[in-house]
Write a structure and sequence with these properties.
There is one protein chain. The protein has 133 residues and is mostly helical. It has five helices and three strands. It has a three-stranded antiparallel sheet with strand order 1-3-2. A hairpin with a 5-residue loop joins strand 2 and strand 3. The longest helix has 45 residues.
């Protein structure tokens, strides 16, 4: 049985990305529709939508398009799609993937610190409003 395919609108709804953003990610080589309909419409699979979600999750962590592309290539290679990597290559890919994980962890920590400062500032403003209300 063939895998279910979705048009771009359904993928946009599923991922929370705009049609324009999905098309941009296609233009820059981060994702490609798995097929085209007879009418030329982009058709995506669940795996394509998940790939877009990986990109969406990287965006708030300020990964560049090149870093996103590199990470997707690493995960594609490790998934063994096509010719599985040899042991030495697999280890190098895992090391690169771990480096991205470390960067993501550090950036998450920075975002948590920024969020705490922002919440503290908002609380200060609420207290001042209450004091002068």
């Amino acid at each position: 049985m063939a895998e279910r395919q979705m048009q771009i609108g359904e993928v946009a709804e599923r991922t929370g990305l705009s049609l324009r953003t999905i098309r941009h990610y296609e233009d820059v080589g981060l994702v490609s529709p798995s097929a085209r309909s007879k009418g030329g419409f982009r058709l995506y699979t669940a795996a394509d939508a998940e790939r877009l979600m990986v990109v969406r999750r990287m965006k708030p962590l300020d990964f560049s398009l090149e870093e996103m592309r590199d990470l997707l290539e690493i995960t594609d290679r490790l998934s063994g799609a096509g010719d599985p990597p040899a042991d030495g290559e697999r280890e190098r890919l895992r090391e690169r993937l771990n480096a991205y994980r470390e960067v993501a962890d550090a950036r998450c920590e920075t975002l948590r610190a920024h969020l705490m400062a922002a919440e503290d500032f908002a609380a200060t403003l609420r207290r001042r409003l209450e004091a002068h209300g």
